[in-house]
Amino acid sequence: MVVRVDQQRLYVWENGKVVATFPISTAERGTGNQDGSLQTPLGLHRVARRIGDGVPCGTIFRGRVPTGQVAPILREPGASSATDAITSRILWLEGLEPGRNHGGSVDSFARYIYLHGTDEEGRIGTPASHGCIRLRNQDMIALFARVPLNSLVEILETFR
Fold first, then answer.
1. How many whole angstroms separate alpha carbon 11 and alpha carbon 34?
2. Annotated catalytic sites, by residue?
3. What's the predicted TM-score (pTM) here?
4. What is the pLDDT of residues 50-72, one digit of tens each?
5. Which domain holds residue 31?
């Protein structure tokens, strides 16, 4: 997978071809790897954990545990929720570049950087997260179904 921050899009590659693309929302504060920055980390990552298989669409997670509640999904452009919920599925990322996104104060896994569904679908396509990569719930479920554990995710500011 490739995340293009400048385009607010995620591309799924298989056998050298793009087989799916999804609009996303990266961090409102831009890119950066520092703990506490609330920014989306750059670089090569892997899917270290897959969480939420089979839960209903819109299920709210707290501490990566499904609560049993389903979030009301805000689809109006720019609409913000009071809860800013993590919903539907979680793909928890681990950085693979020591000193950039792995280890110390730049560790993506320790920062709880995920690909996840959101209750703020109306903000997809614009930077709005607190560091994670948000997708619409149905898109997150579709992505989760096709992405196995250890899949690579390259997060790029722009295409190099």
1. 25
2. 116, 132
3. 0.96
4. 999 999 999 999 999 999 999 99
5. 2-156
